[in-house]
Amino acid sequence: MHEVPPQDNPSCEPVSTISLTAWRRVCDTLDCAFLLLVPDDSQIIECNRAAHHLFGYGKAEFLRFKLSDLGDELKNSFLPEEFRSTVQCRCRIKNGKSFWGEIILQKIDLDGVQFLLAEIKDLSRKKQLEAKLKRSEELSRVIQRLNKIGSWEYEIAANKTFWTEEMYRIHDLEPCSSFRDADTVIAETLALYRPEDMPLVAALFSKCVEEGVPYIVEARMNTLAGHLKWVETRGERIIDDKGEYKVVGYMRDITENKQQEEIIRKGEEKYKTILQTAIDGFWITDLEGRLLEVNDGYCRMSGYSEAELLTMNVAQLEGTLDSAQIAEKIDLLMLEGAIRFETMHRRKDGSLYDVEVSAKPLDFHGNKLFAMLRDISAQKEAEKENRSLQAQLLQAQKMEAVGRLAGGVAHDFNNMLGVILGQAELALLQTSPEQPLAHKLLEIIKASERSVDIARQLLAFASQQPIEPKRLDLNEVVSNTLKMVRRLIGEDIALIWTPGQELCPIKMDPAQLDQIFINLCVNARDAVGDQARIVIETDVVYFSEEDCKNNIGCVPGEFALLSVSDNGCGMDKKTLENIFEPFFTTKGPGKGTGLGLATVYGIVKQNSGFINVFSEPGKGTTFRIYLPSDRGALKLEGDNKAVPVASREQETVLLVEDEPTLLNMAQQMIESLGYRVLAANSPGQAQTIAREYADQIDLLVTDVIMPGMTGLELVRAMEPLYPKLKYLFMSGYTADIIAPHGILVEGIHYIQKPFTRHDLSVKLREALAAE
Ligand code: ADP
Ligand code: MG
Q1: Does residue 284 contact residue 368 with C-beta atoms inside 8 Å?
Q2: What is the pLDDT of residue 313?
């Protein structure tokens, strides 16, 4: 490049004052790439540092190029006719790469010589930014479309509005990509809102524009395409980059959400209707047990109104569980996901009823519990009744079984006692009264007689023993039995006997009276502890009609009272309710049989009496037994102890008994009374003997139940030989032919086994005296 003298140019005078080198330095500091070209062929003759950086060529390399060498579109034809021209094209650079450039060419006149100045800009970065912007706009459009969210802006001062494409789509309008006049747009939009919703939307928008109050609102609009849409609109006033107020916001089409909500709401309504009309109750509660929802079913069950229930807590309705137990149930429920249990609830009137509760956490509402409540009181009642019937049946069966067992045992026991008693009496006959042995034998006899009574009682309990009521003096019986009772209860217990004066006589089996008395005393003994006292009293009591009104089982009249009191442990209400039940006992296994009071009850009932019990836990117990008076002939029956013996003629007795020891004993006993005895151990043998001793037998004494033949059948079998035979039956059983209902048939001579010598002597005489 050659030096050019400064041109005569008045406007750029200072040029002449700087050197070319200085000028080049200026050019090199510029950021923009410059090339200086020869106009004819665009040969490059000068370049600045920026050009050097942009293209990568050194100065020497540039000077070998024409502009057209830097890009295919930069041919000669491009060279401007006019003063200045611009072209955008790909420019080649040194490493074989290229960039998108903009080349501005202009003619310049330097000191009268024409040049071209090429200014080259790298457009790639701008292009990239533009592409990026375009992409993000596209993306935003897609996002808006997919989410049905349109956005908008309103430039207040300019009164211009811009909507995104989705805004138009929500309104069912043709998209428009430019700013529009705000008044038109606002008018258009507001016109679409439903008249009920429009004023609110308009008011919120104005407030936001004028005062900068942000808003969010849901409203319905009818679009021009005829669709009803739910939209959510939000607006906020901001200051834009030009310092101007501007309202920006979005609009969301929430029609589908609303439809979904509606479906859910309808579903919930349906389920609520079902629950409301259900017979069972239901609750929704929070985790503290506060009632949040109840149905009519529960209102009916509980007697409370819905309003009352909604102020209440589960604990106020629970009848049996306390707050801690309720909390435990709730914990269990959260742990297991569901629970079902039975409890009791309290009605508004205070009464309790049985409820089955099934509860679950309400997961879609969170932290709430759902419970179904079923009134099962009727069901429970039926179950209870069923159980009680079942229990009664079981008891009846038990009683029958025990009765049969007791009867069987007592029968054998009876026979053995007969032997003991008989042999002792026979031994006594052979002993002179002064001998100490006589006293011992008497004791054996007494004990045996007592045992006979007890065995008889067992048979009575088993309904296999006819009772033999006698006129008795209660005081006498009690004092006679006291000695034995003392032995039974031991010496540590104070036994206080307070006989009443001028008692009325009673009529009952003395063994039964003993049994009552002993059973009560034994129970009292079992109930007392330290400083124990048992008080026995007797008295005479009159009950009027009036007295009986409040006393079930009581009948008006005169009664002898036997009262047994103790200062023992007493009984609670529940125990008291059951004491007369057979087998009811609170004593440990092997200690109590539960038959004591049941027997007392049975005996008292059988004798038309009644019982009162007074007892409280820790306060002791009093049993009062009322036995009907037998006042009439006031003289009490005295035992005639004289023993009638056989007549002079040596009467002959045919004795039949299959039990050998009994046969032996009875034979000795009868012989001791002066009779001749023909002993047979079976009905068959009896018949043989009868034939042998034809006409010699005065009396047949026979057992009733024997193998092969009964006593009655034996009598019938002997009748041909002895048409006028006299007979006496011996039996331990009552369920016999002779006494099918426990009542002896008039005229039949019968002796209860085991018997005393005295009883037997009397019965023998009676039988022999019969016609
Ligand atoms: P058992 O004596 O074999 O238990 P009972 O029929 O005699 O059977 O008595 C039934 C129950 O009644 C006893 O287990 C006891 O709980 C209660 N009971 C009876 N008498 C008394 C009493 N005097 N004091 C306290 N409890 C009593
Ligand atoms: Mg008892």
Answers
A1: yes
A2: 92
